[in-house]
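Final report, closing paragraph on structural work. Over the funding period we assembled a curated collection of sequence-structure pairs, and we close with a single example.
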Amino acid sequence: MAKIKKIPQRKCIACGKLYDKKDLLRIVDNKELGIVIDETGKLNGRGAYICKNKACLEEVKKNNKLNRVFKQKIDDKLYEEIEAYEIK
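Its predicted structure, as stored:
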């Protein structure tokens, strides 16, 4: 019998729903790079996940959720980068 591979689940910081890790956008606080979008999902550091939809992105931006997750002021440029990312 073949073993079923477990798909990692992560929670969106905006809506709080669980999704497959690959379906979410990862933002990471990396020591060398600072806070960046992690397209590979493998960068070292503290990560936060956001659904790839406009509603969750607006929620994150409006309520400064990334500021709270990373316990520091997040530059507006990062929010613009996230908005420019392929959002469905």
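Strands lie at 9-11, 18-20, 24-30, 34-38, 46-51. The first helix runs from residue 54 to 62. We thank the funder for supporting this effort.
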